[in-house]
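Raw record, unedited: FAD-dependent monooxygenase
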Amino acid sequence: MTSPQSISPRVVVVGAGPVGMVCALALNRLGVPVTVLESEPAPVKDQRAATLHPSTLEMLDELGIVEKIREHCLVSSTYRFHDRPSGELVAEFDLGRLGNEIRFPYVLQYEQYKLTASIAEEYADASDFDVRFSHTLTGLTETAGGIEVEYDSPGGPERLRASYVIGCDGGRSTVRRLAGLQFDGFTYPERFIKIATGFDFKAVKPNLSLRNYFSDPLEWANLFKVRGETPEGLWRVILPISRGEDDATALSAARVEERLQRFFPKTDPYYVEYVNVYQVNQRVAEAFRKGRVLLAGDSAHVNNPIGGMGMNGGIHDAVNLAEKLSRVIHGQAGDDLLDVYSRQRRHAALNYIQAQTIANKKLLEERDPAVRRRNLDALRRTAEHFDTARAYMRRAALYDSLHDAAAVS
């Protein structure tokens, strides 16, 4: 076990996405100097995760983030499951029913690029919270008393000595690769397409919530609203793409219009704000720690987006890790505490984030008519009774994952 007194305090976080920035802020608040390296020249305005679950809001509130972002978010207490072929509303889950037991009985819809930018603008760019864009990690070398970080900067190659390096650099993590950690799991044969439009589905279809899941044996769908850059907001539609369709065809204006018209027919064409196609994986790293290298977020685990668990699970990683790593650096614990982090968060990733997102996809895409009917009937019954609805919502909001992971030693 490494003596805590021998460790230099600075931590390098690789990746300035939401997980990396929350991790850096949490460490900074605990008295740990942080340098964030990000290969992109500025916060990336990507259209990825957007839902902050109640359990995550509690963590962000402790960091003073919620009060600063709330006015820029959409608030949603309900989410609904629909049978797409019949148009039937199958089940509604209302987090407001948990108002007596959780601090935030709703989710905030807030795109991840906005969360990243808001943290960078409010807190970063000081000596003890140093965010460096256009800095690309190239090498890691562990030494007796720390770790040497090599990276390319606008001025050329540079080195930085740190106590630990945290990889928050996504599913293709350079940190994970340099550490030699396996990324076990599978890739779905179909790809997903995400289409954003300003058309207000809820205005013409009253049984919609701001978050909706559509079961369909031929083409399941997710539909949810985000604020975007205008007061009217945007609706995002996520659909599967068959293996036989190439990206160029899927992204063509005619094919995008065809998909939207099939989802919700209307007389005039859709105005599309953005569209992208992406491959989806379910993978978990073999460990979240190797020596002085740690992983969090997509670097450690990736999953399909159904249920909005990826970013939330990553933020849970970040807060768990920051608390434990700060204790190690301040000499309050040995570095074997970081192995506890790895076991706890890997347990949560495997048994909750992976299991739930895989189950969510299977529910929506089930093709056997009898199985579909049984599944939707069971979901309807779950939503109708408070005890079962409560249990479902707590699991979906990742409270159960936090409770069970905390018991792992």
